[in-house]
Design goal:
Pathway: Pyrimidine metabolism; CTP biosynthesis via salvage pathway; CTP from cytidine: step 1/3; Pyrimidine metabolism; UMP biosynthesis via salvage pathway; UMP from uridine: step 1/1. The protein is of the alpha/beta class. Helix content is 39%, strand content 20%. It starts with 8 loop residues before the first strand and ends with a helix.
Length: 211
């Protein structure tokens, strides 16, 4: 069967920061070892901010839809669906702007698109075969975020809490949580929910076998 007949399966996995969406995405990936799978992260598509001062970059609201270059993300996802390779941008979290480097990405038969706002844009939603919302309580998400940012990003507890209360939490309730209505599947408690992950991977296998 030709590539044109075997359109890649696109699975969108979203949820708030610290919800466990990355764990769910990796669980799906690990449950399908005999298939070619691409984990495609929205975080790679933060806008280029090289025209801004470093101070202005620090003040960017990274939880707002406008923080992302959704035009480029949509274009690249469509190319992958058409079995065309892309050069994916790399975001530099230290300089808070896009790196000069890119990552060459070949198309795969399963694409897992993961990010906090992937269901916010209709163009992206229309390209997805399965839309998943990972639903985790605010208290659990902030604890996970504190642990991650202190261990992996060297941030202070006070700066994490301040950012969470002033930006992350209000943006979650304004922009991210409302996209739950577009989801085909809602997964409570993220990567800990093995039943939901098993159901998801069974559905994906079924689609692959019937293509």
């Amino acid at each position: 069967m030709s590539h044109a007949e075997k359109r890649p399966i696109v699975i969108g996995v979203t949820g708030g920061s610290g919800s466990g969406k990355t764990s769910v995405s990796r669980s799906i990936l690990n449950s399908l070892p005999n298939h070619s799978i691409l984990l495609f992260e929205q975080d790679s598509y933060y806008r280029d901010q090289s025209h801004l001062s470093f101070e202005d970059r620090l003040n960017t609201n990274y939880d707002h839809p406008l923080a992302f270059d959704t035009d480029l993300l949509t274009e690249h996802l469509q190319q992958l669906i058409n079995y065309q390779a892309i050069d994916k941008p790399v975001y530099d979290y230290e300089s808070h702007t896009r790196s000069q480097e890119v990552i060459h990405q070949e198309p795969k038969e399963v694409i897992i698109l993961e990010g906090i706002l992937i269901l916010e844009d209709e163009r992206l939603r229309d390209l997805m075969d399965i839309k998943v919302y990972v639903d985790t309580e605010d208290d659990i998400r902030i604890v996970r975020r504190i642990k991650r940012d202190m261990e992996e990003r060297g941030r202070t507890l006070s700066s994490i809490i301040d950012q969470y209360l002033t930006v992350v939490k209000p943006m979650h309730h304004q922009f991210i949580e409302p996209t739950k209505k577009y989801a085909d599947i809602i997964v409570p408690e993220g990567g800990e929910n093995q039943v939901a992950i098993d159901l998801l991977t069974t559905k994906v296998r079924s689609i692959l076998e019937n293509k």
